[in-house]
């Protein structure tokens, strides 16, 4: 008897979330902060401006993969900004595509549906 096992492509179901939860480390002061950011909202952490564009998770029945597409700008002392990162971050692999900055580390912790912080439209 010959048994043949074939792999089928899995359905990559993703859940879009309105909120990205980040951790930020100020390497000079040692201050570690967790903060929520709504999609397309820009928040400032030190001299960095973080703008998430998409945040995806998978259903609890699948292997967890949490990813965010984010843009990070550095604010200069003169007020201008320079884009230092555009791309995907993965909560399960924080060292992969991490922000490489001399003073600040930022990484994705989670994508969320709700937050204690009201959405920008309610502030």
Q: Mean pLDDT, rounded to whole units?
A: 89
**Shape category:** globular
Strand content: over 45%
Q: Biggest sheet: strands, sense, closure? A: 5 strands, antiparallel
Note the topology.
Layout: E1 15-16, E2 19-26, E3 32-38, E4 43-45, E5 48-57, E6 67-75, E7 81-90, E8 104-112
Antiparallel strand pairs: 1-5, 2-3, 2-8, 4-5, 5-6, 6-7
Quick description:
This protein has 123 residues and is mostly beta strands. It has strands at residues 15-16, 19-26, 32-38, 43-45, 48-57, 67-75, 81-90, 104-112. It is globular.
Descriptive labels:
123 residues, three-stranded antiparallel β-sheet
Structural overview:
This protein has 123 residues and is mainly beta. The protein has no helices and eight strands. It has one domain (15-113). The strands form two sheets. Strands 1, 4, 5, 6 and 7 form a five-stranded antiparallel β-sheet that branches. Strands 3-2-8 form a three-stranded antiparallel β-sheet, with no helix packed on it. Strand 4 and strand 5 form a beta hairpin. The protein is globular. Mean pLDDT is 89; it is low at 4-8.
